[in-house]
Amino acid sequence: MNKLNSLIISGREVLPLVEGGKGIAISTGESSAAWTNAGAVGTFSGVNADYYDENGKFIPIIYRGKTRNERHDELISYAIRGGISQARIAHDKSDGYGCIHMNVLWEMGGAEHILRGVLDGARGLIHGVTCGAGMPYKLAEIVTSYGVYYYPIISSARALSALWRRTYHKFSEWLGAVVYEDPWLAGGHNGLSNSENPKQPQPPLPRVLELRATMRQLGIPEIPIFMAGGVWYLRDWTDFLDNTDVGPLAFQFGTRSLLTQESSILNSWKSRLFNLKPKDVLLHNFSPTGFYSSSIKNNFINELCERIDHQVSYSKEMIGDYTSELSIGSTIVYVKPNDLINIDIWITHGFNKPLRTPDSTLIFVTPERAKMIYRDQTNCVGCLSACKFSGWTQTKSKIKTKKADPRSFCIQKTLQSIAHGGDTDNELMFAGHSAHLFSSDPFYANGFIPTVRQLVDRIQTGD
User: Fold this and answer.
1) Is residue 426, in this structure, part of any structural domain at all?
2) Are 352 and 258 within one domain?
3) Are residues 252 and 342 in the same domain?
4) pLDDT band at 364 (very low <50, low <70, confident <90, very high)
């Protein structure tokens, strides 16, 4: 493979290689500094980032608020404090050189407040902000007011066009790049639209060609496109490299950067990566964000699948096929006769607690699982602007609730747990669909875990 040409990203000349930002306390100041020290772009997560005091001691997050609104205010305060802390770590460990980006989730609760708070408290330490999971119309306005470049994460030309026409055209000089995240291959939350079939992936090249053509038609400067999702061997991307119709490219590594010495994930998580097989990562719609997401199959995912398997529709009245009575406490509802047979079987196996969903269905779980669901919903901190699981909804004018969906889960709880010592078989572990290559790539033979610099050097060879 030909030598990679450097690019100007966030005003700095760097390799066209980017660390993918990964959730709560996974991409950190330490990992992002290692990427920038290797001549690439480092990215730390600004989503409820960990805070370290002046002595380098980690300070766990403890919510003391009695109400959800009080806990939400604490969440925002903790998130700002943690983001500033990670930015300082990244800056100090890279001696102030290189290119440091922060990744945020637009659908996180208090996103605008948190983004302003971190950028205000870490002035000059952050050079770019990547942002996805939603349509971040106000991203450009907020970020550019601090002299920082912005990087929207999109999965289609249509999404970028909407963002550009509405607000981004006013801030074109600070648009650093467009991150194209493959909605079928990327880890974490994916940008599948309602018109796209999660089971019918589309090849990326035609979609990227459409994206670049749209960018040129709109008059967007010839900035890089970051390829994200499914990127592993650069030798697989020869049709993209030096392709004038594609234009300048950089490659973002989210999943592959999990397995480095500077990566903060648990050793048990790293060990799990060595043993993954094709199809061990599931694209699913359990996330309380409402987006599809990709994560490693384990007991956590299996239990969520089980909730769907133990689901029936019901009616409050006897009508049509709904002729069989079912008692839910003091309430009588009606289900289909065949469903009642299945319900009796589930109950005999301990799944005897019915929970209502917003779709006029019932799921049957164990009493222990029901208690956990209720407890997690009660302990909600409003980590998302709108949460399917807790019913939390945050609008400009007020905070309100809607009917909660027990088929989802508390994402704040599980991501905090997996980042800080939780059981890798019973918590959510995001990963892209190329993760199985850890088990077959000779670079990782005999359990080898590279430094970030070794990984960056390896990537440049095409492997």
Assistant:
1) no
2) no
3) no
4) very high
pLDDT of 112 strictly over 60? yes
Buried b (16+ CB within 10 A) or exposed e, 22-39: bbbbbbbbbbbbbbbbbb
Q: In this structure, are 218 and 324 located in the same domain?
A: no
What pLDDT, on a 0 to 100 scale, did the predictor assign at position 3?
Answer: 82
Residues 346 and 386 in one domain: yes
> Given a cut of 80, is residue 401 above it in pLDDT?
no
Same domain for 415 and 453, yes or no, is: no
Is pTM beyond 0.85 here? Answer: yes
